[in-house]
Amino acid sequence: MIHLRDINCRAPVYLFFVLAITFTVFSEAVSFDFTNWDDETHVTDNLLVKHLSFRNIKRIFTTTLQRTYIPLSTLSFVLEYHFFGLRPFVYHLNNIILHLAVTAGVYFLALRLGASVGAAAVAAFIFGIHPMHVESVAWITERKDVLYASFYMSAVLLYLGYQTHRRRYLLVLSVAAGFLSLLAKPMALSLPLILLVCDWFHKRRLTSSVLAEKIPYLAFIVPLAWISYYEQMRIPGESLIKATLIWIWTFVFYLKKFAIPDILLPLYQLPQPVTVLNPAYAGAIILLIAMVLVFWKYRRDRWLILAGLFYVASIFFLMRFDDRLDTHIVADRFMYLPSAGICIFLGITVQRIWTGVCRKRGIRRGIVVILFLIPALLLPWRSVNQIRIWKNSFTLWRYMIRHSPDEEIAWHNLAIEYSRHNLYAPAIKLFERALQVDPLYAEAYNNLGNIYFEQGNWVRAFWTFDQAIRIYPEYAEAYTNRGNLYALRQNLPKALHDFNMAVSLKPDHPLDFYNRANVLTEFGQYDLAIRDYTRCLELDPEFSKAYNNRGVLYYRQGMLEKARADFSAAFRWDPSNRAAFDNQSLVK
């Protein structure tokens, strides 16, 4: 095995060129905007991101986001927002830097496993510029991918260093890096399996002491990963045959896309019907059998087996058995780290071909160089084109619609972007198109109602909000929107009912408490209104209007000092809040 101290002087040069090419390929992304696909949930509209305080950090580490426990990823957004605000340049740049770190990790992992410098460079090059990794880097929300992978690779490298030098502190550092990786994304739960794969590759016997080394990892992986997987884990559906077919299809899907990255989409649909007679599933079965035969035939090739074990161990927990919740059961981002083993094997393969060809007479190196240059140029070119679809929400969803016109989310999210630019006519048509694809799309009804609300068409707005609630009776935002309409129509009892429903369904949304407090104020229930304003400000300490309105109630109750403090806070967080300034003057 090669030790890092034994690597010749070419290693830094090779790595520099690989990282330089990778950065060049992804550099265009720094000029891109946020998208309306989860970027608002994770960054732009995420209240947890807006405050850097001990109390807020505590909330980050005690809550989930979209049913996933990713506190470290959210904390990275908090730091970016605190120092740079909502400048997408910074968020994109940090994603690219983290991707470069993971790419370097693949390079050093290949060296640690015994690959030559050239093979390691090829492996890192393929990993760095592969089109299937674009989603994990160019999409700001997928910070969790590049962040968890960077700590994950560090944990593996530190563990291999511990194997070589038997220094306990390296194992401790590896455990710490693994812990941070899991805090960034639950997918890091595969780490102990990958460490066992490394043990196998280095021919370590599976003794009790080797297994004991993995106990510290399991001590934090099991409870932390369970937080996310308890809510998201899939189980086989009613038909065992159907579940098996879906599992085989997803297993083969990633390998096919990695080998031939032709059309890469943000969302993929499960082929229907799920039956062995469907060519998609029949083809997946044939490919799986062929792969098993190849692995059996070359079972003595430890690099090939390493690639297979690395892939299976790291993607196993993402394999699907059913389409119970939705049809989007595969995604490019899931292949980000699992592809590392395959990249290393490809680097070894290129080295073997180069060495073998050069030993034979009559074959010129130039021919081999040309054959290697073809994919070496096609992959970056393909990645650059793939990166450009993430420029903004318009480019993202137009690309999606062009290749998958039956995807209702694409029509809906494109309509959202038009409505944000006050282009209501095309937005309405796009919402209607989404509802043609899926007549039970509650979110499309709700957002269509928002447009009617802005246009003053309250009758249509009421109807669309009612439809959204009828389809999805637990839709908190639809209750909020309908409650606002009732409040404007002075139907306060119904408005209060809708706000009560919204608060009960989404107790962490400050606007619902604010709205309910306003209605309670109209009913003269000042104490209850103050309580709701207070809860609103606990969730969003910068909510200027809530400070002002609570200050008014304090003033009415004769609590002038509290009123003055609230008016001051309201004006401090929003200097344009003229009412707060006037009220503060009144108290003085």
Describe the fold and architecture.
The protein is mainly α and about 600 residues long. The chain has two domains: about 5-235 and about 340-385, no CATH class; about 395-585, Serine Threonine Protein Phosphatase 5, Tetratricopeptide repeat (Alpha Horseshoe). Helices cover about 70% and strands about 0% of the residues. The protein contains 29 helices and no strands.
Task: Characterize this entry briefly.
By secondary structure, this protein is mainly α. 71% of the residues lie in helices and 0% in strands.
Largest sheet: none
Number of helices: 29
Low-confidence stretches: 1-7
Helix content: over 70%
Q: Which value, in Å, is the CA radius of gyration?
A: 28 Å
Question: How is the secondary structure organized here?
Answer:
Elements: H1 10-26, H2 39-44, H3 54-60, H4 71-84, H5 88-113, H6 117-129, H7 134-138, H8 143-165, H9 168-184, H10 191-201, H11 208-212, H12 215-232, H13 240-259, H14 279-297, H15 302-315, H16 340-359, H17 365-387, H18 393-403, H19 408-420, H20 424-437, H21 442-455, H22 458-471, H23 476-488, H24 492-505, H25 510-522, H26 526-539, H27 544-556, H28 560-573, H29 578-587
